[in-house]
Amino acid sequence: MAEGPNWRGMLPGARLPSPGEIQAQIPGFEGVRLTVGEAEDSLVAAADRLAPLRAPWAREAFNILAISGGAAGGAYGAGILVGLTQAGARPTFAIVTGVSTGALIAPFAFLGPAWDERLKDAYTGGHASRLLSLGSLGAGAGALFRTESLENLILPFVDETMVAAVAEQHRAGRRLLVATTDLDRQRTVIWDMGEIASRGGPEALTLFRDVLVASASLPGIFPPKRFACEADGVKYEEMHVDGGVATPLFLMPEALLRWRKLGQRLLRSRVYAIVNTVLEQGPRTTQANIAAILIRSFDTMLRFSYRHAIDRAAAFCASQRLPFSVASIPDPGENFSMMSFDTASMRRNFENGREKAMGPDLWVTPIAEPSTRAGVLAALKLRPGRSGVVNTAPETD
Predict the structure, then answer these.
(1) Are 251 and 271 in contact (CB under 8 A)?
(2) What is the pLDDT of residues 17-57, one digit of tens each?
(3) Is 303 left (phi over 0), alpha (psi -120 to 50) or beta?
(4) What is the separation, in whole angstroms, between the first and last Cα of the chain?
(5) I need a labelling partner for 381 at 20 to 30 A (CA). Which of 81, 127, 138, 324 fits?
(6) What angle do CA 254, 258, 263 make, to 5 degrees?
(7) At what angle do helices 101-111 and 201-215 cross, to 10 degrees?
């Protein structure tokens, strides 16, 4: 079937110029992307939006959850959330952030246990196996799969009901953030999904879905997502890909993490990270062929980027004296692959995550200790979550 104009009125191969350094906006959705400068007023405005000042005597917890990418490994993270619910140990999160498959999980994590059945179905119901099959392979789309494959994977689960529920929680002061990578500018873009949802209407639903698709569009696997934007009446087009290309895992905009006044807003905060891949994989022999070498090299690069992201988060938490708990996939041996979307593997990963969450040793604590007055030691030391050295057991609200 011949491809006609898409919803923006442009043929798939045609493209408007990127906005370069111009601060463009999505028409009708101005302000849904978090652009935080180093100026004090910009930092204060962003902090007021994400972590408002609370009274010193306020008792409510302020938990932050960051969910990483990991493709099919997302089934493990989905299992963790369901397992925490079943164990009665799932915190309520004031801020939830997501990247790639973590972006797809993030709305469910944000909305809480009432959405567990839908989350489980999304990762174990066979949808990925069916939609990411040989019949979905791209044809001249510059990627292994057609963009419709990922869109149709999201479509049944991200609907008007979900977007309305996200908007309601956003109005209550909670925040849901998703990262994409602007390929033209080579920058991370953080989207306030609750702000998108609160605008309402079919356009909000479309943009909400598009951002999730963009965040999970791993280059070469799925085509980039295009966003029509505008500045001073001039139309531009941005090309966005998987958020993990630039930011494997994030807590909030980078400028805020460097702001010395942020700490007073994080009283009684705890930070959690769910990493949907294997961080500590045992050595194994790499076969002497091009495919094996490329796959192993990509896997090594990805693992180091995740460890670096966790190290930076640990350093921030250490500097602010915040408890930091991380859960990742234990080394599953030779057979694990982030690109294995068959239903049996997805269900196995989900069950492994669920069972791990119901046990005593889900969380480990990366500890970055201060080395000088100017910074913290960039070292990652893993200790069991219930070692007695640092208390990382989740608090429930």
Answers:
(1) yes
(2) 888 888 899 999 999 999 898 899 999 999 999 999 887 77
(3) alpha
(4) 53
(5) 81
(6) 110
(7) 130
Residue 238 tokens read as: 């941005």
Give the C-alpha distances (Å, rounded to integers) separating 111 from 50, 168, 387.
Answer: 17, 10, 31
Other beta carbons within 10 angstroms of residue 262's beta carbon come to 19
Residue in 30, 49, 52 with CA at minimum distance from that of residue 199: 30
In the numeric block, which tokens belong to residue 34? 């978090």
Closest CA to 188 of 92, 99, 68: 99
CA distance 382 to 262: 26
Is residue 385 scored above 50 in pLDDT?
Answer: no
Q: At what angle do helices 74-86 and 116-124 cross, to 10 degrees?
A: 150
How large is the greatest C-alpha to C-alpha distance in the chain, in angstroms?
Answer: 64
Does the pLDDT of residue 160 top 90, yes or no? Answer: yes
- Closest C-alpha among 214, 181, 215, 178 to residue 65: 178
User: Cβ atoms within 10 A of the Cβ of 141, count?
Assistant: 17
Surface-to-core class of residue 161, CB atoms within 10 Å of its CB (0-12 exposed, 13-18 middle, 19+ buried): exposed
The string of DSSP letters for 127-181 reads: HHHHHTSGGGB-SSSSSSB-HHHHHHHHTTTS-HHHHHHHHHHHHTT-EEEEEEE
Q: What is the pLDDT of residues 328-355, one digit of tens each?
A: 998 766 566 666 778 888 899 999 999 9
Q: Would strands 175-182 and 187-192 be described as parallel, antiparallel, or unpaired?
A: antiparallel
Distances (CA, A) of 44 to 48, 173, 316, 379: 6, 16, 18, 30
| pLDDT tens digits, one per residue of 52-81 | 988 777 778 899 999 999 888 899 999 999
Q: 225: which strand partners? A: 240
Query: For the chain, how many residues are written?
Result: 397
DSSP 322-343: --EEEEEE----TT--TT---H
Q: According to the model, what pLDDT value does residue 339 have?
A: 65
Question: What span, in angstroms and rounded, lies between the C-alpha atoms of 281 and 278?
Answer: 6
* Tokens coding 85: 């619910």
Give strand pairing partners of 55.
Answer: none
pLDDT at residue number 178: 98
pTM given for the model: 0.86
